[in-house]
Predict the structure.
Amino acid sequence: MRVESMEHDMRDFSSFFEECERAPRLNELAGFFGATAAGRSGNPIKQPHVDRRLLGGDRLLDRFILLHERRRGPFDQHYHASIPYRLEEECRLGHAILRYGQGMSAPLTLYSLGTAEGTMARTISELAEGRVESLSCSPNVENYQSFMAYGDPPHATFFLGPFHHLRKDLLRTRREFTKFASGFDIVFEDTTFQMYSPNRPDQIEFVSQHLKDDGLFFFVEKFKNRDIDEYQRRELQKDHGFKARFFGPTDIIEKKVAVLTVMNRNEVTLAEMSDAVKRRFQHCFVTWNSGNFCTLVASNSLSNIERFMSGLIAPAIPGEYVYADIPNRLHSQTT
């Protein structure tokens, strides 16, 4: 594994960085993300709230939900109102990460990649009281301002910049990041790669250099479907069965034209994602599904995946939005 780490350090990522600089996220979609993060547009008619009927009783989960609700920013409100039961999934994952960290001898390190205000990572760190050190990143100053609006937390850090600007030399040299220089136990990519390009192999390779050899890499993404009609059917279900509770029909259409048509070009299928993940990780599981969206967890340590999933409560989502058996092994290799 150390050899792989050295190969990461020696690889020339310059063409990948150029690709990222040209990406929609930093160019044609920059206005949308800035305005939404500032609360100037994209506001739902009403704020989404966790449907507690879908979650079992658990004191740690209750504490997570309450604090998470107090820490949310404008982009959170838009995001959680846009994807069916994504808010419940965020609370489910945050709760599971807290439980996973309880079984570790040293503080868990978490990198939340591109998750707007970094609310999930910050909430985890606050509740863990020193047992989880987290780093969140976003290129939007509006998200950083939302993060700092609740004070500067002692165990949660924010990097203002796109994910490809967070390079290993920065983690080694900037004082506030040196605690992460030896790598992260968990990397969490939240619908970020699909805003840049469909180049999952290079995206995963670049980011995985920040992950410890036995760490967990989570992906929350929207996936293409080779059956276009099925893909569209799930989109209609999302828009009319869920988003219509929070947005007017004009807002839904305008976002589809301004954002989703661009984003869709950068989506990949689950099969393509599996091929990309296989290049770096021996094991990968699908742990959540909502229409065209899935949560994946990958690692070279099957025992760590199994330990994480043992603390993961059942998906909190009505069955009509689920199109996959959960959990589902996407791939597993033996060495």
The longest strand covers residues 211-222. Strands lie at 108-113, 132-138, 156-160, 184-190, 211-222, 283-290, 293-299, 328-332. The chain has a mean pLDDT of 93. Residues 86-102 form the longest helix (17 residues).
